[in-house]
Amino acid sequence: MRSAIFASLSLLMAGGAFAQANEEAARDQLFRGDAQAVSVADVDFLGAAEIAALKQYAAQFDYYAALAVSPGDPAETGSAVALANFHSPAAAQRAALGACNARRTTGEPCVIVSVTTPKGYRARDLTLSAEATAAFEEEYRGASSPKAMAISEATGHFGIGAGAERALSVCNTAAAAEGPRDCRVVIAD
Prior knowledge:
Elements: H1 2-13, H2 23-29, E1 36-40, H3 48-58, E2 65-69, H4 74-77, E3 81-83, H5 89-103, E4 111-118, H6 130-140, E5 148-151, E6 158-161, H7 164-176, E7 184-188
Antiparallel strand pairs: 1-4, 2-3, 2-4, 5-6, 5-7
């Protein structure tokens, strides 16, 4: 069963290498628009009705999002976790699995059952959450140089500032409230 889950979602794990880019390169890499796509894992514990409900539920989340559950009855295990607004499918999946397994009181280790991406998603060198993409368009592009954008892969937070040091500070301050201070600059001009 686990191999079926990872086989069906393996294409979504690629991408998000977070190479540093300038504004022009970032603009070419980022996904725009609000349209979401939901991939659901082919697992034996989800029937047709559950898959339909899961697709509808997961489509409400901003990309990149993932839903993890412990196989069996998620209501009994207390494990179901949906996390959204990460900077890549892989980051969303890691966060959802970690949170799900931390909440699980019984049952098997958690598995990813759905991933939400922008419509037309394909792996790219730079991907940002829906919120960070909007901030890039609305805030970063209008700012004067020097400017930079930093992201936290572990928490989904980001920061924009006048230069790399300021962007890292803003990002790490936000990320520290929820997890590691792992921010790094991904866009700089």
